[in-house]
Design a protein that fits this description.
two-stranded antiparallel sheet; 8 helices
């Protein structure tokens, strides 16, 4: 099953590459180059985290710790770099981040099938939201918070994620209705995490948290959706087991 899933991932990356070919046709050379750097970096990140997950909790939990620590440092970095402005925003954001990080850490040690399902769905949602947004997105979703997000991107990413949730449902041995419900929860929590991250950056008037990941910005730029979705699924699992 894991082998089949990896082939599915490769198929999605192939579709994504085709999408980038169309996106880059009318872009300036420097912009097109940055898009390909982003694509290749994302390919590496997905592969690293995929193999961390299938190897067991120890590996993915180690990755989760790195992501959490890096996120704390990036939040603090923007606050310090700004000259310590928006103190209440910083402290509230840091507290909120630490709370959901606990949930994300718990999630990182859960059954690898569930972790893999969540990771794949949100990765598909995130990547195809960007691709469909650049291809067909015209109407801005929340221009004051995240200027690049469009309704077309949200719709495209959601549609592909829902289809993928149904394709991958046998990973968890769940029904189609359960797969749709779980996928919707993943999408919504990923979107909220992304918007919360974008809101914080807007307060400090920056595009990226840092330049640590080529083409993607910082760790929070890349993993905000994963942290939020993981924390939300951990909470839902806890409630379900009560």
């Amino acid at each position: 099953m894991i082998k089949v899933i990896y082939y599915i991932i490769l198929a999605y990356f192939f579709l994504g590459a085709v999408g980038f070919i169309f996106i880059n046709r009318k872009k300036e050379q420097s912009v097109a180059r940055n898009n390909w750097v982003k694509f290749l970096t994302y390919f590496i990140i997905i592969n690293v985290l995929f193999f961390c997950i299938i190897q067991g909790p120890v590996f993915f939990r180690s990755a989760a710790i790195i992501i959490i620590i890096s996120g704390c440092l990036e939040l603090s970095r923007l606050y310090v770099k700004s000259g310590y402005i928006h103190k209440q925003v910083f402290y509230f954001s840091l507290l909120f981040f630490l709370i959901i990080s606990v949930g994300f850490f718990i999630f990182s040690g859960m059954e690898k099938e569930l972790v893999l399902y969540v990771f794949l769905i949100l990765s598909i949602f995130d990547s195809f939201s960007q691709i469909s947004g650049q291809l067909w997105g015209k109407r801005k979703l929340m221009p004051t918070i995240s200027p690049n997000k469009t309704w077309g991107g949200l719709a495209g990413g959601t549609l592909i994620a829902l289809i993928s949730g149904l394709l991958l449902k046998n990973l968890l041995y769940i029904s189609s209705i359960e797969a749709i419900a779980l996928t919707v929860n993943i999408i919504l929590s990923a979107f909220v995490g992304d918007m919360a991250s974008s809101f914080y950056k807007r307060q400090y008037k920056v595009k990226d948290f840092s330049n640590l990941i080529p083409g993607h910005g910082g760790f929070l730029d890349r993993f905000d959706s994963l942290i939020a979705s993981g924390a939300w699924i951990a909470l839902l699992t806890f409630i379900a087991n009560l």
